[in-house]
Amino acid sequence: GRAVPQDQSPTSTCPPGPSGPPPAVNGSSDVMVNFDPDPADLALSSVPGQEAFDPRRHRFSDEELKPQPMIKKARKMLVPNEQKDDKYWSRRVKNNEAAKRSRDARRLKENQISVRAAFLERENAALRQEVADMRKELGRCRNILNKYESRHGD
Q1: Which cellular component terms (GO) are annotated to the entry (predicted)?
Q2: Under a CB-based contact definition with an 8 Å cutoff, are residues 53 and 110 in contact?
Q3: What is the DSSP annotation of 136-148?
Q4: Whole-structure pTM over 0.70, yes or no?
Q5: Rounded CA gap, 2 and 146, in Å?
Q6: Cα angle: 58, vertex 51, 115; to 5 degrees
Q7: φ/ψ of residue 135, rounded to 5
Q8: Per-residue model confidence as pLDDT tens digits over 100-114
């Protein structure tokens, strides 16, 4: 059969090679992701006085991403007022501080995971687009190659 006419638009980069910068040698060719997290979100996912949380670079372990079981709280023990001595109050203060630290740590981790997930969603969309573009380009290249082979043999 007759070859289908190929559009000779300059978008087909098959013969000269792929456009854009070559991928990084170490295999982590970063795709450009237009991701500007809200500074407030970054603040809520960074530890004050430490390096800011970077959702582009941070990797969570499988363990950190495991869903946490719901833990049944112990029944509240009501302590009668006459038993609330100094020891009781110092333990209450220590426990309240520990509970606050625990809640803050959990919130920080959840915020980090949220910001990282938002970045990964963006990156995933960009990578899918890149794959789609490359598939399209591969189709054009194969088309050119098929034409060449049908004219000149293998």
Answers
A1: nucleus
A2: no
A3: HHHHHHHHHHHHH
A4: no
A5: 12
A6: 40
A7: -65, -45
A8: 999 999 999 999 999
